[in-house]
Amino acid sequence: MDTEASMQPRMTFRSRALATEAVHAGRDDLAALGLHAPPIDLSTTYPSYDSRGEAERIDAFATTGARLDGPPVYARLDNPTTARFETALARLEGTGSAVSFASGMAALTAVLLVRASMGLRHVVAVRPLYGCSDHLLGAGLLGTEVTWTDPAGVAEAIRPDTGLVMVESPANPTLAEVDIRALAHSCGSVPLLVDNTFATPVLQRPVEQGAAIVLHSATKYLGGHGDVMGGVVACDEEFAARLRQVRFATGGVLHPMAGYLLLRGLSTLPVRVRAASATAADLSRRLAADPRIARVHYPKVGGAMVSFEVYGDPHRVISAVRLITPAVSLGSVDTLIQHPASISHRIVAEGDRRAAGVGDRLLRMSVGLEDVEDLWADLCQALSAPPARTAAGTVPESLPAVP
Ligand SMILES: *Cc1c(COP(=O)(O)O)cnc(C)c1O
Question: Ligand 1 pocket: which of 105, 174, 227 to mutate (most atoms <8 Å of CB)?
Fold first, then answer.
C-alpha cells in the first residue's frame, strides 16, 4: 500500500478493508439465496410475457445506460455473474462502478469509442504502454489521434478535442512509474486513465490519487491463474453507463464463466500479490548484485514484476530457463519470462520502442508463488548457460554494447 493512501482515512470509498472486500464484495446476497458459491448464469436470453414492459426497459437502457432492474433481456446487455465481478472490482478500486469486457483490449476500445462518440478523438499518452495499447492508439484503427509525451508535457499537449490522457504505472515492460497525483492535476478536466494491471488495487488505487478511469487486463493478476481472459474499467457511474451502451452495441462482453473465474480470482488477489511481490523484491535485490546483470527495474510501489537487462544474450536466457516458463502474459501463480522487444512490444516500431526504454537486452519476468530459492537457482543456471552456437560454430546473435 502506498504511504500517502494509507495515511488517508481508510473508509473514504470503501466500507470494509481491502482483504475483506476481496472475499465478500459481489457476494452480499448469497446467504439470503441459500448459497455459498456464486451461481453461474449462462443464459443468452431471458423469457418475458410482458413485451410492453421489456420495451420500456430497453428504452431506459438506450437513454441512460443504467443497469436494468431484473433479468437482462439478452446476454449482450448484462449478466448477473459478470455483474458480481464488476461490483467486487469497483469496491476494490474505490469507484462507483465497473464494466467488464472480453479482454483488456476490448475494455480500452470501449473507452476510446465512448470519447470518440463525443467528438473527442485526441488522446495524450505516455510511453511505454503495453505493446497492443500503443498500437491501438497509434494505428488509427478507431480514428484516434495520439500525442506521445512525457508526464511533464501532458498539460501542454492537451487540446480542445482531447478526450483522454492515458498512462500505465508501473508501465509494461520497463516498470517506469509516474506521479499519478501530479499528472491528474496536469490533466485539468480531461479524464486521466491509469492502466493499473501491474500494481492491482492491492498496491495502488489510482482514483484515490485523482485518476478518473482505471483499466485492467483482468487476464493478468485479477484472474491470477493464466486460464481466463477479460478486461475491466473502473470509473464513476456516469462513464460506466456510456461504456455499457458501447459494450451492448459492439459486443465485447465478458463470458459468465470468465466472470465467475475472475470473481474467484479476486478473493485471493491480496494474498497472491503480497506473496509474489515479496519474492520479486528479493529477486530484484539478488539480480542487482549479480555481475551478469547490467540493470534491474523494480518499481517503488512494489509488485510481482521484475525487469532486467543482461550483459549476455537475452535469447539464451529465454531458451535456458527450466522451472520458469518462457511465455508472454503475466500475473499467474507461476513465474513467466519473456523478451519484450521480440514478443509483447514487437508491434511497436523499433525506434519508438527503444526511445521508451524497451531495449534489446531487456527481459521481463512475472514472479509467481514458487519458492524464491528455486526461482533463483533456475535464473542463475539460465544466466550462465553457454552461448548457443550455430552449425558453423559462431555465436549467432550479436547485441549492441551496453550503454
Ligand atoms: C495484457 C495487457 C493489456 C491487454 O489486455 P488483454 O487482456 O491481453 O487484452 C493491457 N494493458 C496491460 C498493462 C497489459 O499487460
Answer: 105
